[in-house]
Structures are given as structure tokens and as C-alpha cells.
Amino acid sequence: MKRIYVREEFCIGCHLCKVYCRLQHSKSEELLKAYKKELPHPLPAVRVEERGNLALSVRCQQCEEPLCLYACLGGAISRDADSGTVIYNPEKCIGCWSCILACPFGAIKQDKEQKRIFKCDLCIGEEIPACVANCPNEALVYIDLPENNADRLCNHPGQAEKIKGGA
């Protein structure tokens, strides 16, 4: 299954992943309208953590064993049988926030305005998620990488060439 991986050595903390995620999930798909005029406000499903010179994008990790799915009392979180993506159905969300508590990455956000959650959906229907497509330093990559090789992605700068070639 394809996932988004962070190459933290290339992340400059520009937050463009958040901007384009918010834009992708807006009704208007126009930057100023998405930020200033749309109600309810579209939320980014990603956050950027920064500690000194280190910055990295945090979003749903599309876990093999998604604790959020098991914790969801309303059945709003499920796994797509074809893609394996952990998906969210807002119509079924009861606003209990148990998925937020269960997520070990803190990747599920609370939408207090609509009394439900918001999480990364890998931009369903798009070939490449918006955060990846708009990352200026290619710190985010969207590839199918075996679980046991995922750590290598961030620890080997030479990996960038392999990724571009379709690792």
C-alpha cells in the first residue's frame, strides 16, 4: 500500500503541506476563499512539528493495525478493501473522540465546529496527495515501501534518487 513518508532532512518547516491540504479539502479550491470565506472552515489533516532545526509533517500513517478503527464507537472509520487506506465517514461520526485518544501519532484532529474528527484521506481520487505534490523540497514522498524499510527513507539521503525513479 502506498503511504506518505517524511524525509526530515529535507523539511524546512514551510507549512505548505498544511496550506495545500486545507485547499484540497475546501469547497471552493481557491486559496483566499478557503482561508477567509468558507464556512465551515476547511481543516488541514496534517500538522507540522518543529523542534529547533528539525521540522516534520505529521499525518495519518495508514497503519496496518489502525487503533483508531478499533476505537471508533460509531463505525465512522474503516479500511478501504481495494487500497487499504484508512478512511473516515463523517456521517457516522458521533463525536466521541475515542479515535483521537487511540491514535499513537496524534494524527487525528478534532473539528470542534462540526463536532467530529478530521484525518488524512490521502486525497482520495487524486494520483498524488496535495501535500506531497506541493512540497517544495520533496520532503514528502508517496510510495509503496515495505514496512521494514520505512526507516531507511529518512536516514539515507541517497534514497531520494531511488524514490524519483519509482523505488
- DSSP helical segment count: 7
Question: What is the residue-mean pLDDT, rounded to a whole number?
Answer: 85
Largest sheet: 2 strands, antiparallel
Query: Approximately how much helix is present in the residues?
Result: 10-25%
From the alpha carbons, calculate the radius of gyration and give it in angstroms: 16 Å
CATH topology category name of the largest domain: Alpha-Beta Plaits
Strand arrangement in the largest pleated sheet: 1-8
Distance between the termini: 13 Å
So, CATH architecture of the largest domain? 2-Layer Sandwich
Structural class: alpha+beta
The number of domains: 2
CATH top level of the largest domain? Alpha Beta
Flag low-confidence runs.
150-167
Order of helices and strands: EHHEEHEEHEEHEHH
Number of strands: 8
Tell me the β content: 15-25%
Judging from the principal axes of the Cα atoms, what is the shape?
globular
Jot down its keywords.
two-stranded antiparallel ribbon; two-stranded antiparallel sheet; disordered C terminus; Alpha-Beta Plaits; 167 residues; 2 domains; alpha+beta
Characterise the protein shown here.
The protein is α+β, with helices and mostly antiparallel strands and about 170 residues long. The chain folds into 2 domains: about 1-60 and about 125-145, 2-Layer Sandwich (Alpha-Beta Plaits); about 65-120, Alpha-Beta Plaits (2-Layer Sandwich), CATH 3.30.70.20. It is built from 7 helices and 8 strands. The chain has helices at about 15-25, 30-35, 65-70, 100, 130-135, 150-155, 160-165; strands at about 5, 45-50, 55-60, 75-80, 85-90, 110, 115-120, 140-145. The strands form 4 sheets. It has a two-stranded antiparallel ribbon with strand order 1-8. Strand 4 (about 75-80) and strand 5 (about 85-90) form a beta hairpin. The chain is globular and about 40 Å long. The two termini are about 15 Å apart. The model is unreliable at about 150-165 (pLDDT under 50).
